[in-house]
Amino acid sequence: MNSMIQGIKQFVREEDGAAGIEYALLLAFVALVMVAAATSVKDSVKSIWTAINTALANAAPAAPAGS
């Protein structure tokens, strides 16, 4: 029991735990920004593919009437 208390005291004194928490918060923030930006990116990509599809449909020659 005493060694466990000593281990906890040592963990609190060390700065590695604080750095780990800072990195975890930074990672969570980056993930949140990526999720928020995903909607905008999705709409932009959809718009680009729609424009490409329309341009290809207009550029394709019309099929002969007898085909």
Structure overview:
This protein is an all-alpha fold and 67 residues long. The longest helix is centred in the middle third of the chain and has 44 residues. The chain is rod-shaped, with a radius of gyration of 28 Å.
Walk me through the topology.
Elements: H1 2-13, H2 16-59
Number of helices: 2
Counting DSSP E segments of at least 2 residues, the number of strands comes to: 0
> Which class do the helix and strand fractions yield?
mainly alpha
* Biggest sheet layout: none
The helix-strand sequence is HH
- Shape descriptor: rod-shaped
In whole angstroms, how far apart are the ends? 87 Å
Q: Averaging pLDDT over every residue, what do you get? A: 82
Low-confidence stretches: none
Considering DSSP H and I runs of 4 or more, what fraction of the residues is helical? over 70%
List the quaternary state of the chains. Answer: single chain
- What is the C-alpha radius of gyration, as a whole number of Å? 28 Å
- Strand-residue fraction? under 5%
What's this entry about, in short?
With 67 residues, the protein is mainly α.
Q: Main attributes?
A:
67 residues, mainly alpha
